[in-house]
Predict the structure.
Amino acid sequence: MLHFLYSLFFRLALPFVLLRLWWSGRENPELRRNWRQRLGFVAPAGGPVIWVHAVSVGETIAAAPLVKALLNRNPNVPILMTAMTATGLERARATFGNRVRYSYSPYDTPGSVRRFVERVRPKALVIMETELWPNMIAASRQRQVPIFLINARLSERSAQGYQRVGSLVRPILASIGWIAAQASEDANRFLRIGAKPDTVSVTGSIKFDVDISSELRATARQVRATLGAGRPVWIAASTHDGEDRQLLDAHRQVLAEHPNCLLVIVPRHPERFDAVAALVAEQGLSLARRSRQESPAAAQVYLGDTMGELLMLFGASDIAFVGGSLIERGGHNPLEPAAWGMPVLSGPHVFNFETIYGQLASGDAVFITRDDQQLAARVSALIVDRTLAEQSGSNALAVVEANRGALARVVDGIVGRV
């Protein structure tokens, strides 16, 4: 009954969802350009594909090493990547070019998903993290498509929410052939909400298998030279509305002690680039924008308003703050800066990555700051105390190195089950 009501609600809401999509397309025409894909009208596949579903840019980034490994292991099996957001697809295209196919995910109505599955004919469905879409999973199950939930995580808050709709969730979990959980806590929560014990494994997080190529390191060194080799640089990555002002306030405090310090700020969503630039100007800070190739040499703030360069920009900085954490967004992945061996800072709201942050905290590899004042004090302290900064960075890298290997386990598990 809950599944029926869910589908009915989504059908009734669909006209309003499409209207909102059209309205949002005023600022991002890409949203309007391929709207039919969201209703399942995609080009038919030439043969079976591995369908990798990632909702937004965060899941797309997490899926990248997995897709690369699957391409290397099965070069003759095409991969289709889907996302719900334009930024997710843009990041996928920037990463893979023409090596994979791309499409928006179908809206989760029975008709949209059925059309999509009939045209795509997936050999397997690989879902990243915790995207349990009832009709997507039901349509795949009806066509006997193996379904894998990879890098699966489930916070206590989400588990409690799923328990309240157990009659909807249990059939979904029963349809999933393998749940590759990031940690034992995640696995136990999936079991608690109805997953079958023989379908749940703890593989670790594939995010620990971040790959920093020699080419990327060389580019980071070149960019660092343009930022100013002798000045302190800290980066605020994946920031959200509500915390940019706090970060700029923190930077003003840092500048009072270190006048030549540079803040590299990278908003999570491209549609906010101009708003953040306006906020910097409002604060009276000098700004350079990367997208305009403006020199940051004399700037106090450098806006990273490009796609697909965040990992490189970490490498061009000395200290990293990971956003989505000064507000109750749940935080973002701290392992990319950790893999560079640099100090990692965060706000207190990291419930989306509680296991990873717990591992970093256990290894003395992260600093949690509650507000702009604490953040400014910590950045200033790390600028002054290079020994502390180097030790913290070494600790962060050690945590990453100690937890590598999940990617190989996940790829083996998928290939062995397809």
